[in-house]
UniProtKB/TrEMBL annotation:
<keyword id="KW-0221">Differentiation</keyword>
<dbReference type="GO" id="GO:0030992">
    <property type="term" value="C:intraciliary transport particle B"/>
</dbReference>
<dbReference type="InterPro" id="IPR029600">
    <property type="entry name" value="IFT81"/>
</dbReference>
<dbReference type="GO" id="GO:0030154">
    <property type="term" value="P:cell differentiation"/>
</dbReference>
<feature type="coiled-coil region">
    <location>
        <begin position="483"/>
        <end position="563"/>
    </location>
</feature>
<dbReference type="Pfam" id="PF18383">
    <property type="entry name" value="IFT81_CH"/>
</dbReference>
<keyword id="KW-0969">Cilium</keyword>
<keyword id="KW-0963">Cytoplasm</keyword>
<keyword id="KW-0175">Coiled coil</keyword>
<comment type="similarity">
    <text>Belongs to the IFT81 family.</text>
</comment>
<keyword id="KW-0206">Cytoskeleton</keyword>
<keyword id="KW-0597">Phosphoprotein</keyword>
<dbReference type="InterPro" id="IPR041146">
    <property type="entry name" value="IFT81_CH"/>
</dbReference>
<feature type="domain" description="IFT81 calponin homology">
    <location>
        <begin position="3"/>
        <end position="126"/>
    </location>
</feature>
<dbReference type="GO" id="GO:0042073">
    <property type="term" value="P:intraciliary transport"/>
</dbReference>
<feature type="coiled-coil region">
    <location>
        <begin position="309"/>
        <end position="389"/>
    </location>
</feature>
<dbReference type="GO" id="GO:0036064">
    <property type="term" value="C:ciliary basal body"/>
</dbReference>
């Protein structure tokens, strides 16, 4: 405690406070003066809260200080029960409470200034949920959050720039280096120009080089555009594939369903969505709001230690035990009258729980189905990227397998036929070869006979005439068959058109009736939806009003509870002060010297006398020191001169010894020369 007070006094005597306190004067400060001193320190950290205590009520002062200490994340020592004592001590200006706060604040003033500056922009204003339903308020709140995020990013960049250590000297050095590089490049360009000027047609070559550079840049831009177009085309093909898959699914669903089944599915979906909107989601929202409210309340409280958590757990266990006892008493009290409905209540609760579980399972299944659909789309896109075909469904795969089996059977059959035809082709080829040989032999014999008779070429001319007549007859037959086929095809087409018209007429009539029914059902669905929306809006308005009323009552209850605790704390403090005053009067009036020594007045009187005696001794010591200061200084000067004189003598003695040693060496060297 003494070191703590010494540190506080030293900091308060420095800039910017300059209070000129000592330990006695600081310890003798009254509660109001301590509170004003704490307010001055907090005002130095955050100038927005700087104000005099005479301008506000004690409750406002305590609230202002507690808010700022909460923002600065001050953790008061002790358990949860000590927190109320801390608040009470802050209101009354108790020294055991104020001194640790001052010590904590003065230890980290610069850090807390930064935290208070950031809190002005980063402490979020809580807007009630009913106000956020207004579009204008919601837009302003969104802009506020975006600006807060932008401020965070800018502050981080500012801190990083500070940490990076880029100074103006380094920037100037970089600029000077860049200017030198610029001068060097300019000189190099000048040298290159001079070298180029000696070349013939250098202007034309420069123009060609410039055009080449422009064309290269254009080629790069076109390549980039081509790449972008390819990526866009790929994404468009993916979207087209997804749309085709969805179209096939919708066509499959429409082909296999009827209007009654579609309406039934729509009714089931509407019932499920209405259950989610009216029961499940509001209940979840309420639980989320409650958890958020408690979390905000926990965040607003100062940090808790393990002892605080243990005390809270013990208190929770006690409250749960009391609740269980009350529930058992109520069941014992009301069970005979309520026994008829207990079974129905249990069944209703079980059904509601099952309903909630099934709704959650359905929601999870829908989410899983959507995730699987996304995975399927990704896999199909990957298959398309690998230039493969589309991924088949189960039915399509079965059809594909059946087709493969039938094709395999057909392939085996045709393979046998090909083997038989190949064998027969070999036989026929051999027969043809034999017949050709015989034909050639007969032709040679015939030519020899014609030459003998003098009519060579007669057989060839006869064959040509027969071949031409055969071709003409075939052409006539083909023309006749073509005309017959065309006339038959026209008749068939006319008959098919008439048949299709006759078969589609009742379907078209039925389709018109179904369209009319669909329009009526759509209109009825829109009317029901409007009624549902109006009913939901009315219920939502009533719910908001009830929530506002409950919130107001809770705040009023909390305020009354706070006032109650505050009055109890004030009462306890006054009782303690009254008890201390009574004990002080009793000790002061008591004739027993030992009891009188226990009185605070006697203790302080004794301390003051001791301090006065100590002051007298110190003044006498100071007087003795002042009187002996002059002679002592002269004596110290004489000793310093004596020390310099002795140092000088030592150096002279060392020099003399060195010179004597050198002379002796020289003499010995001369004697050696004489001997030689």
């Amino acid at each position: 405690m003494g070191d703590q007070m010494q540190f506080i006094v030293e900091k308060l005597n420095q800039e910017p406070f300059r209070k000129n306190y000592n330990l006695i004067s600081f310890d003798s400060l009254e509660s109001l003066q301590l509170l004003q001193l704490l307010s001055d320190v907090l005002g130095e950290i955050d100038p927005k809260v700087r104000r005099a205590l005479r301008d506000e009520l004690p409750e406002q002062t305590a609230k202002r200080m507690l808010n700022l200490l909460g923002i600065l994340k001050y953790k008061p020592p002790g358990t949860v029960s000590d927190l109320s004592a801390f608040r009470q001590g802050l209101v009354t200006g108790s020294k055991p409470v104020i001194h640790p706060v001052l010590h904590w604040l003065l230890q980290r003033t610069n850090e807390l200034k930064k935290r208070a500056y950031l809190a002005r922009f980063l402490v979020k204003l809580e807007v009630p949920a009913e106000f956020l339903q207004d579009d204008t308020v919601a837009d302003f709140n969104k802009q506020y959050e975006e600006l807060m995020e932008a401020f965070k990013n800018l502050h981080k960049e500012h801190e990083q720039l500070k940490i990076s250590g880029l100074s103006t000297a380094e920037i100037r050095r970089d600029i000077s280096a860049m200017e030198e590089e610029k001068d060097q490049l300019a000189k190099r360009v000048e040298r290159l120009k001079k070298r180029v000027e000696t070349v013939q047609n250098h202007q034309r070559m420069l123009e060609i080089a410039r055009q080449l550079r422009l064309e290269k840049e254009r080629e790069e831009s076109l390549a980039q555009q081509k790449q972008e177009q390819k990526s866009q085309l790929f994404h468009a093909e993916q979207r087209l594939q997804r749309a085709q898959v969805q179209l096939k699914e919708m066509q499959h669903v429409v082909a296999d369903s009827k209007p009654e089944s579609l309406m039934k599915k729509l009714e089931e979906e509407i019932n499920f969505n209405s259950y989610l909107v009216t029961e499940k989601i509001p209940r979840e929202m309420e639980s989320k709001k409650t958890s958020v409210y408690f979390l905000q309340k926990v965040v607003a409280e100062p940090a808790m230690t393990q002892a605080d958590l243990t005390a809270l757990e013990r208190e929770i266990n006690e409250v749960n035990a009391q609740m269980n006892q009350l529930i058992e008493k109520r069941m014992m009290k009301y069970e005979p009258a309520d026994s008829k409905f207990s079974m129905y209540r249990q069944q209703a609760s079980i059904i509601s729980r099952k309903k909630e579980a099934k709704a959650e399972e359905l929601q999870a299944a829908k989410e899983e189905m959507s995730s699987l659909e996304r995975q399927m789309e990704q896999k199909s896109s990957q298959a398309h990227e690998l230039e493969g075909s589309e991924v088949l469904t189960e039915d399509e795969f079965k059809q594909y397998v059946n087709k493969l089996r039938s094709k395999n059977t057909f392939y085996k059959k045709k393979r046998l036929e090909i083997a038989e035809i190949t064998a027969e082709y070999g036989i026929l080829q051999r027969t043809e070869e034999l017949l050709r040989q015989r034909h050639e032999a007969i032709q040679q014999q015939l030519q020899a006979i014609e030459e003998k008779k003098g009519i060579s070429g007669y057989s060839y001319t006869q064959e040509e005439l027969e071949r031409v007549s055969a071709v003409k007859s075939e052409m006539d037959e083909v023309k006749g068959q073509t005309l017959d086929n065309m006339s038959e095809m026209v008749k068939k087409l006319n008959a098919m058109v008439a048949e299709k018209k006759a078969s589609l007429a009742p379907v078209i009539k039925e389709l018109r009736q179904l369209r009319q029914n669909c329009q009526e059902l759509t209109q009825e669905c829109d009317e029901k939806k409007i009624q549902y929306d109006s009913c939901a809006a009315g219920l939502e308005t009533n719910r908001s009003a009830l929530e506002q009323e409950v919130k107001g009552l809770l705040e009023e209850c909390a305020q009354e509870e706070s006032n109650y605790h505050y009055i109890n704390c004030m009462k306890r403090t006054l009782e303690i002060q009254l008890q201390r005053a009574k004990e002080e009067m009793k000790a002061y009036v008591s004739p027993d010297p030992q009891e009188r020594r226990k009185a605070v007045r006697e203790q302080y009187t004794r301390i003051i006398l001791e301090q006065e005696n100590l002051g007298k001794k110190l003044r006498e010591k100071q007087k003795v020191v002042r009187e002996s200061h002059g002679p002592n200084m002269k004596q110290m000067k004489m000793w310093q001169d004596f020390e310099q004189l002795m140092e000088c003598k030592r150096e002279c003695f060392l020099k003399q010894q060195n010179q004597a040693a050198i002379g002796q060496v020289i003499q010995e060297g001369g004697k050696d020369r004489l001997v030689l």
